[in-house]
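Quick check before the chapter quiz. The format below is the same one you will see on the exam, so make sure you can read both the input and the output lines.
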Amino acid sequence: KEGSVVYDPSVCVGCRYCMIACPFEIPTYEYDKVLTPRIRKCTMCHPRIIEGKLPGCVEICPNEALTFGKRKDLIKIARDRIRKYPDRYVDHIYGEHEMGGTSWLYLSGVPFKELGMREDLGVTPAPELTAGALSTVPMVAGLWPVLLTGLYAVSKRKEKIAKIEQQQAIASTLEKANAEAESKLSKALAKAQKEKDAAIKIEIKKALEEAKKTQEKEGS
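Here is the expected output.
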């Protein structure tokens, strides 16, 4: 409404498509602020404009190199200057038609290309060129919670499966250990019983031999 393009942090998702889309490379990103980064650019001192004041640069410029007003009035002023001073200005109002027309208009005494300003922008408004890409941003932003929820569910499922597999492995190990212990115990008991039986047989044999010797002595 006031002609300024401002940054709205309440709807920004940090995609930085505005930086990619801007042919003038105006928006910059606060990479040095990890937790609260913002997109920064000139806002034409939007709060001052709302209050009916001039942008700060226009008000403070000592040479009055900047003029602020309605776009149609500025174009008229620019054309009058070119007409009155043809030897001072190039016959071109930069921003009148570039990218469908911009809120900033420039006059120059040399070709704008020499100033590093692009002259290959065409007359198609930027929103028409970026509408396709930007239309996917809400969808992508909306899919993030779903995707993250899905990843969380998969992660929890993997943790649950891993826990079950761990419990099964522990149970299997314990079962195997118990089986081995029972087998060893059974063998040990069998061996002990065998040794006991052998010892009993030896004692019986000794007792019989002693009894036989006693009988032989008494008979003689």
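If your answer matched, good. The CA atoms of residues 120 and 142 lie 36 Å apart.
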